[in-house]
């Protein structure tokens, strides 16, 4: 009985710790949401912890009335959809070729690809290269450099090698070429790994702000994350300027800016959070690809 009681107490302790950890992880998100729905002037007084004290949608009205935010949102949606589809298809196509061990130079290509996972050319050479080939201030800078990822290719390749070889042999006897086999047989059978890689690419495309900061100068081509980054940076600079100058009259603008940032953060985070539950079952199955043999 004593051992059973100690085990039960231990389970309660573990469950309590899990609840605390979940609370610490989720509360900052919840706090951001309630502040974004609270009146901006009222929020500066503090004392808001779990629910909005004075509910208001003014911050969200400003977000959707700002043409630059709407334009940035459209750019983000376009780069996420196009970039994810192109990257998944191109990486899967390369991985399908790499899965064939009889391909000439397969081992050499694998060595070169592995090196790229650990070493890169650096930011300045990459910037010069992109500018020389016309990707600077070009929407394609979001698409072309991310078309292929060697790590994702390895995941695809591991899955393709586990597919029965008889499928391709039967298709070739019926007159199908490699492209038709890949599109009509391999792709439909690869939905778990495709969903996993699509989730990787989609989350990265949606959250990436650095590409827009470095390679985009045209405001009409910047994604929403880059817009949010510049909004936060400009607000921080304005706050420093006001504190140095000792200004008092700029407090209302600062409140509005903070409320706008919070509302923009919620709007930009919500879509990718809503997509994840639909891909979760594929994601868990895809992560186990290649881990069990036999």
Provide structural commentary.
With 294 residues, this protein is mostly helical. The chain contains 13 helices and no strands. The chain is globular, with a radius of gyration of 25 Å. The N terminus and C terminus are likely disordered.
> What is the tally of beta strands?
0
Label the structural class. mainly alpha
Mean pLDDT: 78
Unreliable parts: 1-5, 241-255, 290-294
Gyration radius, in Å: 25 Å
Summarize the structure.
By secondary structure, this protein is mainly α. 73% of the residues lie in helices and 0% in strands.
Keywords:
294 residues, mainly alpha, globular, disordered N terminus
List the helices and strands and how they pair.
Blueprint: H1 2-36, H2 40-43, H3 58-65, H4 67-98, H5 106-116, H6 123-132, H7 150-162, H8 165-173, H9 178-189, H10 191-207, H11 210-215, H12 224-245, H13 251-287
Helix pairs in contact: 1-13, 3-13, 4-7, 4-10, 4-12, 10-13, 12-13
């Amino acid at each position: 009985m004593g051992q059973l009681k100690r085990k039960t107490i231990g389970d309660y302790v573990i469950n309590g710790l899990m609840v605390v950890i979940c609370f610490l992880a989720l509360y900052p998100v919840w706090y951001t949401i309630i502040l974004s729905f609270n009146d901006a002037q009222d929020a500066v007084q503090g004392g808001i912890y779990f629910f909005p004290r004075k509910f208001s949608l003014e911050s969200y009205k400003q977000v959707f009335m700002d043409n630059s935010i709407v334009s940035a949102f459209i750019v983000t949606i376009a780069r996420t959809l196009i970039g994810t589809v192109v990257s998944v298809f191109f990486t899967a196509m390369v991985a399908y070729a790499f899965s064939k061990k009889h391909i000439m130079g397969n081992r050499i290509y694998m060595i070169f690809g592995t090196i790229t996972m650990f070493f890169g050319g650096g930011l300045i050479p990459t910037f010069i290269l992109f500018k020389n080939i016309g990707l600077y201030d070009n929407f394609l800078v979001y698409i072309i450099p991310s078309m292929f990822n060697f790590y994702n290719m390895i995941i695809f390749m591991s899955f393709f090698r586990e597919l029965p070889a008889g499928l391709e042999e039967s298709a070739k006897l019926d007159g199908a070429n490699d492209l038709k086999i890949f599109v009509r047989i391999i792709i439909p059978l690869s939905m778990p790994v495709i969903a996993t890689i699509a989730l990787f690419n989609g989350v990265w495309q949606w959250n990436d702000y650095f590409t827009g900061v470095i390679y985009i100068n045209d405001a009409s081509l910047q994604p929403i994350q880059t817009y949010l980054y510049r909004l936060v940076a400009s607000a921080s600079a304005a706050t420093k300027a006001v504190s140095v100058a000792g200004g008092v009259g700029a407090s209302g603008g600062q409140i509005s800016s903070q409320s706008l940032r919070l509302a923009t953060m919620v709007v930009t985070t919500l879509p990718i959070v809503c997509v994840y539950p639909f891909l979760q079952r594929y994601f868990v199955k895809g992560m186990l690809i290649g881990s069990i043999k036999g």
